[in-house]
Amino acid sequence: MIFTAKQIADFLQGEIIGNSEVKVSNFAKIEEGKPGTLTFLANPKYTHYIYETNADIVLVNHDFVAEKPIKSTLIKVPNAYAALASLLEMVNNTRPQKTGIDPMSFIAPTAQVGDDVYVAAFAYIGEHVKIADGAKIYPHAYIGDGVTVGKNTLVYSGVHIYYDCVIGDECILHSGAVIGADGFGFSHENEEYHKIPQMGNVVLENQVEVGANTTIDRAVMGSTFIRHGVKLDNLIQIAHNCEIGENTVMAAQTGIAGSTKIGDRAVLGGQVGIGGHIAIGNDVHIGAQSGIISNIKEGSEIMGSPAVPVKQFFKSSIIIPKLPDMYRQLNALQKEIEALKEKLTSAPEG
Amino acid sequence: MIFTAKQIADFLQGEIIGNSEVKVSNFAKIEEGKPGTLTFLANPKYTHYIYETNADIVLVNHDFVAEKPIKSTLIKVPNAYAALASLLEMVNNTRPQKTGIDPMSFIAPTAQVGDDVYVAAFAYIGEHVKIADGAKIYPHAYIGDGVTVGKNTLVYSGVHIYYDCVIGDECILHSGAVIGADGFGFSHENEEYHKIPQMGNVVLENQVEVGANTTIDRAVMGSTFIRHGVKLDNLIQIAHNCEIGENTVMAAQTGIAGSTKIGDRAVLGGQVGIGGHIAIGNDVHIGAQSGIISNIKEGSEIMGSPAVPVKQFFKSSIIIPKLPDMYRQLNALQKEIEALKEKLTSAPEG
Amino acid sequence: MIFTAKQIADFLQGEIIGNSEVKVSNFAKIEEGKPGTLTFLANPKYTHYIYETNADIVLVNHDFVAEKPIKSTLIKVPNAYAALASLLEMVNNTRPQKTGIDPMSFIAPTAQVGDDVYVAAFAYIGEHVKIADGAKIYPHAYIGDGVTVGKNTLVYSGVHIYYDCVIGDECILHSGAVIGADGFGFSHENEEYHKIPQMGNVVLENQVEVGANTTIDRAVMGSTFIRHGVKLDNLIQIAHNCEIGENTVMAAQTGIAGSTKIGDRAVLGGQVGIGGHIAIGNDVHIGAQSGIISNIKEGSEIMGSPAVPVKQFFKSSIIIPKLPDMYRQLNALQKEIEALKEKLTSAPEG
């Protein structure tokens, strides 16, 4: 891609300050900006970089006021980050799109494949699978028997989807994601564990994104539900019979034990652990590395293991390093009080 | 499947209370029971659902006594959960079984493949591999040179087994599991790390289940051992030269560092971390998110990071949010004592 | 392999004590030493095993002095562990090497493949890929369009490398590693998350090792950098736009959030979590399960969540189990002081 500042400002309906004919061919972060690149300033923490950057174009918010001279051409827009996102998306859409059925793929005779579908070499499509229009199935993806994959969904290389799972429209499944492996369910008899067959499935509604190497287990019966618009980062574990509410997001390496329900619009940090059979309300925020062992009311902001309100967590965290001193101080006070009591007792009373 | 209550009661040798001719075609959780489904009641916490469920059949324990009218047909059995498990297994066994060697598989000329084996399209079987009777190797599974796979073992899609590892009978390896990748071993010289070749292997004994995307590293020499009946959930890390005792179970995202030995029948929660060269006794229970940095005696129940006895962990956890108050209280007491001492010293003695 | 003690001593330039003609054909740990094996003694903790081991040869440090008779032949070397490593490497190099292009691989017409390259059955090499001399691409590895793979790099089975990533020379990528999946970046509008296209890539410099099922996300723009000699264990998450400095090592299941920079020669324990936009200096040591939420100065040794200096962490950890007693003691003291004040106030003053 090569664009002038004018072309970009026209696309974004932004205002140019500087040379409207300067050309860029790539994006850069503001601290790494080189000639020929476009960058953006959204986070005020990075403002000082705008006076040094070598990027030729910087997208800035409408209310940005320069305090020193700037080499770059500025394009003022209502929201620099959103403007960047739409530019990135526009350029991304110009990338060549994979299409067609590769002869080195495996498609079972009973599978149904829609229009404008990509099925790569070494992709495996099982019996009775339905692949909707516009879906893309990359190499080494495994679509088990009876699975449905929705419209325009991307299934990247090495995704594994076990039988009978349902994947919605416009989902993105990243490499190594495993959807519908058996839940971890056993009956315990005579000191051995006997497998409980996991007969349910996983349902991903529309616009769900699943990160690389994330695992979502099939239900023992019924479904594990990932609702509309959920975004899961990498290496997350969702156990059997969980339900993750609409537009909830989870950072990497978080794990949710079986039958737990999480509400809508929840935000979970990385490496969070949530126990089984727990209910988390809507709009809950959970800090990184938290451990949750009981139900959480909607709107809560919590952190720690076990989790407490986030402010309380940080207040206690400040005290913990003082514990050895507190311990000594407490025992010193104990002795002082003993001494005072001694003194008072031995002192003649009047 | 379609079964009448009578057929199910006969299979389970249970007692029918209600309509013996009602038919079901699927399973459901008691809170999600719909007409045409069978459910169960094992956990007393869920008892209230039995009076509302629309499931047509409910498996209950022999000692269950209804306190209100119930719409559903009940089948009384000694253990409702175990009865459910055997029903699920019976139905699961009626699912079509994969079989045969797909012409789009790769089987090295020196490999030996037993009877009734399934080798899927895009499965890779290396040199000198031995696949025993009844094993099933799904698409994109990689069986490295010299590996043996035991009888009736399931190797799901995208499992990777490095050379010379040994997989027992009736094991289940879920998608993305990696068995026998190099242990993390380096010698440190001149500020650089030099790889120590990892020449050992991994041995899985019989009836081991390995979750999706779990990794078990090969030994530097000798073997990493996963003993009979061990069940590992998803995204677990077992480092080189570990030994996991018989019938031990681990929840998801737990990690065990190198050369650590865990006894028989241990139960580990999720996201536990155990240091290297540690010995954990038999029958140890370790709570979720614990960190273990020293040997643990058999039968211990521990939690926390560093871990302490589980009761102690929870007792301390209750106090931690009170720390800021304790800190203030302690310093206030300190001042009060100073004041008292002052008063006592300045007071005329007698 | 079969070697005599003499052959091994010659190779290592070591000194033999005992039978120079004894033959070994395998390696063993000292506590598992059997006839026909060679072992080593480096960690003094294991010294007592040398008097019991059945290994025929033991590598020992030059300064080792036996306190009792030893059955085995000893070979004295300056550094027993380094000597073992070079022996293991020598033997490892005698293992048959994979080579050649398998006809069941997929290589795009525009890809360039160097000399002495191995491309296995079911390996996928995309458009405009460059595979340098001596690289090995195992089954089910996916090399996306425009990727370059350096000299002698090993890409094991089931590794997935997204488009335009750059992999250096002499790297090792273990099974299930995912390089260059989309970073977790969304703009938040109207209670929904909209994907920010991730247009950058991942750059692995030379001699980087990436563990099984580890994920390294591509940058939103620019590159996620893994510098020379970095060693990453299994199941690690590196988010978009991170930079990991030279010769840094990380143990399993650690996660680094977006845009964080880690210095050279850092050592991270397992299950560490580091927040986004953080700077970690050179030579920092971070204990297992730590949580890092602010910048860390070079040379720091820290632990805990939130992390504090490692000594402070352990000092506080010792006090935490005493908290319930401290709480009781503090409240008892409060009462005693109240009582003392009462007494002092009510006592006639002189």
Description:
- The structure is a homotrimer of 350-residue chains.
- Chain A has 350 residues and is α/β, with parallel strands linked by helices.
- Chain A folds into 2 domains: 91 residues, Udp-n-acetylmuramoylalanyl-d-glutamate--2,6- Diaminopimelate Ligase, Chain: A, domain 1, CATH 3.40.1390.10; 213 residues, Hexapeptide repeat proteins (UDP N-Acetylglucosamine Acyltransferase, domain 1), CATH 2.160.10.10.
- Helices cover 16% and strands 30% of the residues of chain A.
- Chain A has a 12-stranded mixed beta sheet. In chain A, strands 9-12-15-18-21-26-29-32-35-38 form a 10-stranded parallel beta sheet, with no helix packed on it. Chain A has a 9-stranded parallel beta sheet with strand order 10-13-16-19-24-27-30-33-36, with no helix packed on it.
- The model of chain A has no long low-confidence stretch (mean pLDDT 95).
- Chains in contact: A-B, A-C, B-C.
- Chains A and B meet through strand 22, strand 23, helix 3 and helix 4 of A and strand 4, helix 2 and helix 4 of B.
Give the strand order of the largest sheet of chain A, numbering strands 1, 2, ... along the chain.
8-11-14-17-20-25-28-31-34-37-39-40
Number of strands of chain A: 40
CATH class of the largest domain in chain A: Mainly Beta
Q: What is the radius of gyration of chain A computed over CA atoms, rounded to a whole number of angstroms?
A: 28 Å
Give the mean pLDDT of chain A: 95
Tell me the helix content of chain A: 10-25%
Morphology of chain A: flat
CATH architecture of the largest domain in chain A: 3 Solenoid
Largest beta-sheet characterization of chain A: 12 strands, mixed
For the record, give the distance between the C-alpha atoms at the N and C termini of chain A, rounded to a whole number. 97 Å
Quickly count the helices of chain A. Answer: 4
Class computed from helices, strands and strand pairing of chain A: alpha/beta
What is the number of independent domains of chain A?
2
Low-pLDDT windows of residues of chain A: none
Which percent range describes the beta-strand content of chain A?
Answer: 25-35%
Oligomeric state: homotrimer
